[in-house]
Amino acid sequence: MCKQVAARHPGAFDQLVERHQACAFRLARSVVGNDADARDVSQEAFIRLYESAHRFDGRSRFSTWFYRIVVNLCIDHQRRTKWWRRLLPLASEADDADEARTEPIADEPTPDVEVMRREMTVNLNRMLNKLSPNQRIAVMLQAQEGLSSREIAAVLKCSESTARVHIYRGLMQLKKALPKD
Known about the structure:
The chain has ten helices and no strands. It has 181 residues and is mainly alpha-helical. It has a domain at 1-88: RNA polymerase sigma factor, region 2, helix turn helix motif (Rna Polymerase Sigma Factor, Chain: A). The radius of gyration is 18 Å and the shape is globular.
């Protein structure tokens, strides 16, 4: 597919965007911390993809190569905005979803369940923000995208054992932060 994009076949780029847009956005949001910046970063990633599709040599999976583009752009964004000084929590998806909804859903959760869900989302986002960038990226790529430690290593440009360490340490920090029952 990437070769078709490089050759500028009609519709090939649209198919790639459709297939990878949600993943790129989730990864960017998990790193940059808010929806608006994540949209900007993921859009820039697709521009870079379009411009550099001819460089994809097939030695890795396309998704691994593309996630590396997204991660690099996130790192550049963080450097430009100095995000670590602001420590902004991730934007709540629930607020956006509530504003966009116009019709009630038949099996809509009760208000107390919805409050608990929002609190859990806010707390999880707060805990994720406390992880190092490499730990956060590694955990998100494994949990959300189902990437193997080898693929995560390619995205992070580190050894496979280092990627496993980032995943392990990130998960252990998240586990420590969970409330004890």
